[in-house]
Write a structure and sequence with these properties.
Elements (H helix, E strand, L loop, with lengths): L3 E3 L6 E4 L5 H18 L4 H17 L1 H12 L3 H25 L3 E2 L6 E8 L2 E5 L7 H12 L3 E5 L5 H14 L6 E3 L7 H6 L3 E7 L2 H13 L3 E5 L5 E4 L5 H13 L11 E5 L3 H13 L19 H16 L3 E4 L15 E4 L16 E7 L2 H8 L4 E2 L1 E5 L3 H10 L4 E4 L14 E2 L2 E2 L4 H5 L3 E8 L1
Parallel strand pairs: 5-6, 5-8, 6-7, 8-9, 10-11, 10-16, 11-14, 13-14, 16-17
Antiparallel strand pairs: 1-2, 3-4, 4-20, 9-19, 12-13, 15-18
Length: about 450
C-alpha cells in the first residue's frame, strides 16, 4: 500500500510520502538506541513535565489534529476532536501516576532487604492501525515513555500525516531527540525491525493476521509482545433491561468510528420476549442517522477508511443474505456520491451455525439475533473465536452476576457502552490478543520486573 493521505469522503489523494530507505531506518534505530541510554536515567518528575507539555499541545491544537484524522480516515470531525482530548487525558493520567505505578515494592523475606523494582526495557516498536490514529498511539506511548522506554512508531500507511504529527508533538513537548520517532515504512519492513537486537519488544493493534505475523517473528527472537486484535463483540439485551436506553446505546455502540472499532458492538443478542420492541427502536434509530461529509457537525456517519474495506464489508453482507439473513435497512454501498460510504445496516435471521455469524463486520452493520433466555444469550455471545469486549443489559441482580462471570471477554460493561478508559486495563482473550494496555497493568507490560534480595 502506498504511504499517502487519500480522503475517504472524496477519493482524492491529498499527499504522498516516500518510504524510508534502509539507511534511514538504520539511522533512526541507532538514534533510538543511543537515546535510551540517556533517557532511562531521567527522573519521573522530568518525564512527567514533558508528558504534561504534550497534553497541553494536544488540547491547544485539537482542531488541527482532528482535521488531519478526519481527512485521512473519515471519522466525524467532532469525534476526531474528542479523540485528541482523550489523548491529552491519557498523557496526564500517566504523568500523574507512573511514579506510583512503578515504585519499588517491598517484600518480606529472610533477607535484610528485598523488593521488586520496575525498569525500562529499551526500544519498543509500536505497529498501529488507522482507525484511531492518535488514541491508539498515545495509549501506548504515554505509559511506555513514562516507564523510561523509547518508542518507534510504524503507523498504518493511510495515516502518515497523523504519524508525523504525533512525533512532532513529543519533540515540541521537550522529549530528547530519538525518544519517540515515526517510521514511514511498509509492513514488509516490520520483520526486520523485530529481528534487530536494538528492538526489545513490540506491540500491535490491528487485524488477527497482522498480529499473528508479528508474534511469530517476535517469538523467533524471544521478544515480548502485546496484541490487541479484532473483536465480534456481543451486545446482550435481556427482558429486564431498560429497552429504550439499550437501543439508543446500541446505535452509538455500532456506529462508533463509522463502525470501524474493535470494541464496537457487532452482534446484538436479544431475549425473545422484548425482541420486537428492541428491533423497532433500533431500526428507527438507524434510519434517523445522517450519512455525509464527516467535516460537517451534523454528520452521524462518515465514510469507511478505504475502498478495500468498503468492498470487504459489502461482500460479508451479501454472504449473510445468502446464508438466510434478512436486511431490514441498508445492505449495499451508497453509489450516488463519491467516497467509501456504506449505510447503516441491520441484518436479522442469520442461522446461528452460519460461519458469517461469528465474523467481525468492520463497518456500520448490525447483526440481530433472537434467543429464548439468558442461557442461550451467553452461549451465543461466547460462540466466537474473539473475546475483546461485551455489553450486557439487565436490571436483575442474578442475571448481572451470571453475565459478569460467564461472558468470555477482556471487558464486560453492564448497561453501558464498551469503551477504553485510562484508569482501567484494556485488552482481550482468545483470538482478540493478549496483554493489557492502560491502567497500572499497561505500564507494567514493557518493564523488567527485577527481584532484588540484599543480605
Amino acid at each position: 500500500m502506498a504511504i499517502a493521505t487519500i480522503n475517504p469522503a472524496t477519493g482524492e489523494t491529498l499527499k504522498t510520502f516516500e518510504p524510508l530507505k534502509d539507511t534511514e531506518i538504520a539511522a533512526k534505530l541507532n538514534l533510538a538506541n543511543q537515546a535510551f541510554e540517556q533517557y532511562r536515567k531521567t527522573s519521573f518528575p522530568q518525564r512527567s513535565l514533558w508528558l504534561q507539555k504534550a497534553a497541553e499541545i494536544l488540547d491547544q491544537e485539537k482542531a488541527d489534529f482532528g482535521k488531519i484524522m478526519t481527512l485521512e480516515m473519515g471519522k466525524p470531525y467532532k469525534a476526531a476532536i474528542a479523540e485528541v482530548e482523550k489523548c491529552a487525558a491519557v498523557c496526564r493520567y500517566y504523568a500523574e501516576n507512573a511514579a506510583d505505578f512503578l515504585a519499588d515494592v517491598a517484600v518480606k523475606t529472610d533477607a535484610s532487604h528485598s523488593f521488586v523494582r520496575y525498569q525500562p526495557l529499551g526500544v519498543i516498536l509500536a505497529v498501529m492501525p488507522w482507525n484511531f490514529p492518535f488514541w491508539q498511539v498515545f495509549r501506548f506511548a504515554a505509559p511506555a515513555l513514562m516507564a523510561g522506554n523509547v518508542g518507534l512508531l510504524k503507523h498504518a500507511s493511510n495515516v502518515p500525516q497523523s504519524a508525523l504529527a504525533i512525533a512532532d508533538i513529543f519533540q515540541r513537548a521537550g522529549f530528547p531527540g530519538g525518544v519517540f520517532q515515526t517510521l514511514l515504512i511498509g509492513a514488509a519492513k516490520v520483520a526486520d525491525l523485530i529481528a534487530d537486537d536494538r528492538v526489545k519488544a513490540a506491540t500491535l493493534t490491528g487485524s488477527e493476521p497482522a498480529g499473528a505475523s508479528l508474534a511469530a517473528n517476535a517469538g523467533k527472537h524471544i521478544k515480548k509482545t502485546v496484541l490487541e486484535l479484532g473483536g465480534s463483540d456481543p451486545f446482550i439485551v435481556l427482558a429486564s433491561a431498560d429497552i429504550a436506553a439499550a437501543a439508543a446505546t446500541a446505535t452509538a455502540a455500532r456506529m462508533l468510528n463509522n463502525g470501524q472499532s474493535c470494541i464496537a458492538a457487532k452482534r446484538f443478542i436479544v431475549e425473545e420476549a422484548i425482541a420486537d420492541q428492541f428491533e423497532k427502536l433500533l431500526l428507527d434509530k438507524f434510519l434517523a442517522l445522517k450519512v455525509g461529509d464527516p467535516m460537517q457537525p451534523d454528520t452521524d456517519l462518515g465514510p469507511l477508511a478505504t475502498p478495500d474495506i468498503l468492498q470487504e464489508l459489502d461482500q460479508q453482507v451479501q454472504v449473510a443474505k445468502q446464508s438466510g439473513g434478512k436486511v431490514l435497512t441498508g445492505g449495499h454501498p451508497i453509489s450516488d456520491r463519491p467516497g467509501n460510504f456504506y449505510p447503516p445496516t441491520i441484518i436479522t435471521d442469520i442461522p446461528l451455525d452460519a460461519p458469517i455469524a461469528q465474523e467481525e463486520f468492520f463497518g456500520p452493520v448490525a447483526l440481530l439475533f433472537r434467543v429464548p433466555n439468558i442461557d442461550a444469550a451467553i452461549k451465543l455471545a461466547n460462540a466466537t473465536p474473539f473475546g475483546l469486549g461485551a455489553s450486557a443489559w439487565t436490571n436483575n441482580d442474578e442475571e448481572l452476576s451470571r453475565l459478569i462471570a460467564e461472558i468470555e471477554a477482556g471487558a464486560v460493561f453492564i448497561n453501558g457502552l464498551v469503551k477504553s478508559d485510562p484508569r482501567l486495563p484494556f485488552g482481550g482473550i482468545k483470538r482478540s490478543g493478549y496483554g493489557r494496555e492502560l491502567s497500572i497493568q499497561g505500564i507494567q507490560e514493557f518493564v523488567n520486573v527485577k527481584t532484588v534480595w540484599v543480605k
